Amino acid sequence: MNFSMSSDQQQIEAQIERLCGKFDDDYWAAADESGTFPEDFYRAIADGGWLGIATPEKYSGSGLGITEAAIMLRTIAASGAGMSGASAIHMNIFGLRPVIVFGTDAQRMRMLPPLIRGEIKACFAVTEPNAGLNTTHIKTTAQRQGDRYVISGSKIWISTAQVADRMLILVRTTPLEEVKRKTDGLSLFYTAVDRNRVEIRAIPKMGRHAVDSNMMFIHNLEVSADDLIGAEGDGFRQILHGFNPERILIAAEAVGLGRAALRKATQYAKERVVFDRPIGQNQAIQHPLAACWMNLEAANLMVMQAATLYDAHRECGPQANAAKYLAAEAAFTTCQTAVMTLGGMGYSREFHVERYLRESFIPRIAPVSPHMIMNFIAEKVLGLPKSY
């Protein structure tokens, strides 16, 4: 049992740290203030070949695993980029796993290399206003018409839709009342975002303004049958394949965000002098920060265990969900502690920790709530009766 990174993984971390060093706190604060997508950062990541870190080499990727992707995203968030930096590329890293696993070779060759080169951006359109986490009850439909499908419906909380060229979208191809199992009749498409047929409205929100969140209203969008991933009606099983890597990567980003906040708070505690002594000399400041470090490190171990299991093609659902829960809670507590350590200056924008705190709610809420994770662990790990 080895808890240390390999030399290759250490090099990934070091290279990403160097790349992120070009994008300082002021860069991310300005992007957050203006609500501008961090195109320069996105382009630097793409030009470095990092968007394909977990994609097979045959399709222009690096052929590495979710473990290496987690290290990369953790490092990006820890640099001070936080969830804004991670979310700018998050979809490119994990989002097309269903295409890699279930798509045809022709689809992979057509869909993956442009995404990896950064020539196009993609969004993930699953959640709907009236379905939430009850994915089998989505209302967006796709009706077959010859060699095409016509999609209509609405989606919500779709990240990067304002700048996306493509979307991976889950729809109903068979009405719920006509299927034997509620998970049947859902289909997955990867297709162009035709803005003549797709209306996108940004959602004003608390944080991560540099990366947009949106509602999508789809009106008779024509999609080629060649854009259907896998078999019609098999979409639910396909998106399940992406759930665990998504949770692992969100968890890694949360650990990175917490580390950024802890670094800021620790530095301030060393430098801020009150009553003729640095406030970091007081145990009331030391102990919460020490607890934050321990919680973040424990969460990181769970992240790495989940990622290692996933890359070994072993069952990792409990570990992936636990990693997401533990990392999100540790990040939130750390960001809150950082604000309180800085006191009034923590509430100001000057020291950036208030931005981290606002962003720390993202991994707590998305892509699944902490309450649903506890339901999952209770049922699937502890064997307790299903509660929902």
Describe it.
- Helix content is 52%, strand content 14%.
- It has helices at 7-20, 25-34, 39-47, 66-94, 97-102, 105-116, 235-271, 283-311, 317-342, 344-347, 353-359, 361-365, 370-381; strands spanning 122-125, 141-145, 148-156, 166-172, 186-192, 198-202, 214-224, 228-229, 273-274, 277-278.
- It starts with 6 loop residues before the first helix and ends in a 7-residue tail after the last helix.
- By secondary structure, the protein is of the alpha+beta class.
- The strands form three sheets. The chain has a four-stranded mixed β-sheet.
- It contains 13 helices and ten strands.
Task: Describe, in short, the structure shown.
With 388 residues, the protein is an alpha+beta fold.
Largest sheet composition: 4 strands, mixed
Strand order of the biggest β-sheet: 1-4-5-8
Shape: globular
Helix and strand content put the structural class at alpha+beta
- Series of secondary-structure elements, N-terminal to C-terminal: HHHHHHEEEEEEEEHEEHHHHHH
